[in-house]
Amino acid sequence: MKFSQFNAVLPYGEKYALYNAFTQKVIFMEGVLNDLLQAAVVEGVDELHEVHPTFYQYLKDQSFLVDNDVDEVDKVKKLSKSYDENLNSFWLTVNPSMNCNFKCWYCYETHVKSSRLNSEMIGKINMFIEKTAAKPGMRYFPLSFFGGEPLLYFKKEVTPIIDAYVDACRLHQIKPSVSFTTNGYLIDEEFISYFKNKGISCSLQITLDGYKEQHDLVRFVSANKGSYDQIIANIKLLVTNGFFVRIRINYTDKNVVGTYQIAQEFVELGSEIIEKHLLIDYQRVWQNDQIDNTFHVVNENADKIAETGITVTTTYSPDNVKNSCYADKRNSAVINYNGDIFKCTARDFTTVKRAGYLTDKGTLFWENDYLERRMNAKFNNKPCLTCKIMPLCNGGCSQHAMEHIESGQDYCVHHGDENEKMRIVKTKIDEIVGA
Hints:
Radius of gyration: 24 Å
Shape: globular
CATH class of the largest domain: Alpha Beta
CATH architecture of the largest domain: Alpha-Beta Barrel
Structural class: alpha/beta
């Protein structure tokens, strides 16, 4: 037998926690058992069978010990492929425009004022939707809108696509699922009424840049008018009407302080609404990504938010094999307003960087073998293949993998920092203990 590559041991309270990132199981050991385990790892785990056969058998039964001939990395590869190559689902994202009513400093899109869907492109997108919904075995077909700000031309250019999508889904017995990533400023009663009249639900991810003062420094209507109060009011309107809202806090080491106060804005709505219709998600602005102690501030704020009854998540709890990014899946695409197609929304939507285009017949054409290159990009990075948290991290996303591997660079999305990795392990253990 051998000690699983995906095991991690760390002090936890007065004991030691042994956690496995593949099985996502944890056990707690007294110091004496930890000493035995550490000695066995060095001397050979089969020696433990002689010293403490009961402990040895338990570790074996719980897969902390595995057969010498087991290829654990291959198990992760197969599990990952089972999710990412599933052809019974398709994740479609449409960018109706690259224009936006805000100009946030970190925004990765190039805003194009004249960018809008025309009737011809709407027709092509609707053809693609109809063909996709009609595919044999199609069971899950979520439709998302991104941008730019996708609500700028909602009535004229977005609702025709949703109308066709809902009709296609109902024809083929697929439950419609519509979502928006939006700054939330343009939400109004007309938006609410549209979905109620269609008889379908809609979820939204709405971004905030810290609590009121910090947010308004980044997202403002004019020099004298911020957007925080209006966005909070719009979120209340949405959740009280049954819409689910993920509030994404785009944080830096500067604006994260005091963000727990955002949750206080919604306490008056009552536990039933906030527990069912709200989630707060901390995501670090990638231009500010660095090794520091900001995670302490994030955790302090997250703990205070959890006390209100609102579900809160942080970037320290990845599960990127079982819950991989939509862009990692073969059956996913982002269609830009001009027909260019991409796999990922976290990149500039310029034609020179496109992965392909939407044809006149409403089909996806991937250029330069892009789709296969992307799908085969994972598991080619040497540091990932020996990492204890590989089943959680999965090497980041396929975008990271393809960009680095094709340039011949090894990489680690956690900067190769073992403390960062153990912080993720501790977060996972905390979640298990809390559950």
